[in-house]
Amino acid sequence: xxxxxxxxxxxxxxxxxxxxxxxxxxxxxxxxxxxxxxxxxxxxxxxxxxxxxxxxxxxxxxxxxxxxxxxxxxxxxxxxxxxxxxxxxxxxxxxxxxxxxxxxxxxxxxxxxxxxxxxxxxxxxxxxxxxxxxxxxxxxxxxxxxxxxxxxxxxxxxxxxxxxxxxxxxxxxxxxxxxxxxxxxxxxxxxxxxxxxxxxxxxxxxxxxxxxxxxxxxxxxxxxxxxxxxxxxxxxxxxxxxxxxxxxxxxxxxxxxxxxxxxxxxxxxxxxxxxxxxxxxxxxxxxxxxxxxxxxxxxxxxxxxxxxxxxxxxxxxxxxxxxxxxxxxxxxxxxxxxxxxxxxxxxxxxxxxxxxxxxxxxxxxxxxxxxxxxxxxxxxxxxxxxxxxxxxxxxxxxxxxxxxxxxxxxxxxxxxxxxxxxxxx
Length: 425
Prior knowledge:
By secondary structure, this protein is of the alpha/beta class. It is 32% helix and 16% strand. It is built from eleven helices and 15 strands. Strands 6-7-8-5-11-14-15 form a seven-stranded mixed beta sheet. Strands 9-10-12-13 form a four-stranded mixed beta sheet. The chain has a two-stranded parallel ribbon with strand order 1-2. Helix 6 (267-285) packs parallel to helix 7. The radius of gyration is 29 Å and the shape is globular.
């Protein structure tokens, strides 16, 4: 019979076998390999989640006035100076920068307008990721439709996505009212279509449209709509071209004066009729699973310096600081027109089609220093006598780039990626 000491020794030998170099080393090596693989997987997962958090914001509310619903209101916040992360691209490196918006090129020395980011009150605005957007647009069309302010936003978008692809892989072509930027590698186009009143008008020529006697076919849109009917993302705007007390509404056609009828209508009434025509066309021709729809709210102007404490007759010229008064609104902003847009969009939603309002109005109201002023070229560069008369020739409507429209596109980007359940993608 074995002694107690022998029994304990036997148990110990079974529990703690002697190291065997023929199999112990492979187990250690395999364990380390598994650790490496798990670490790599965790790293990749973390990067993926971080990227998706940056690209896909959750539960944003966005009615025309920035209210309603739950979640984070991207349109309510403040401007924060940030010269480390902004601007998002360089003016001189944007291949297709517009001279109308290239303020540094035309002599502007104070460049602080480029370094402001929009900070919502309760969340972070996702940083624009040009590569992610181009992947989203692969083999697809994004079309901006509207006036020169929408064209400025389009230029901003072209600069933003163009900054992440080689110049040799991007191109531009113009065909009448349509301008088409193409990212060759992605077979993606980002386009602008000139239609300042959305419906047909005598101002539809992209060059010769500065007519004092404005006439609008408030019931006709098909001529324009055929150019963007099959787009996958549509961004509309129309506002400043309506800003007059009354407007001539044409019922009929420009070609048939005998059968046509002109009626002078109040501006807001004409505006509503045009938007109803636009919304009716969308309802019939756009499938909600195939196209994302957006409407940019009115862009404010800063041509009355007395509204923020300057002398009468002064404007945005020479401004280097923002308006600090919270909730400031200039007289050029018409809340009743914005309400018309909201009503049309709400009615369209009850008919099964959602058009997301991107409310840029209030956040842009503060940015009186963001306009080109005299530092721009439109049809031709300003002459010396014009430059010396900024009260008459300063552009306080459009925006310098890089600048405010880049933030408009960040907001647009956030809502494009919000729609994870959108079958278009």
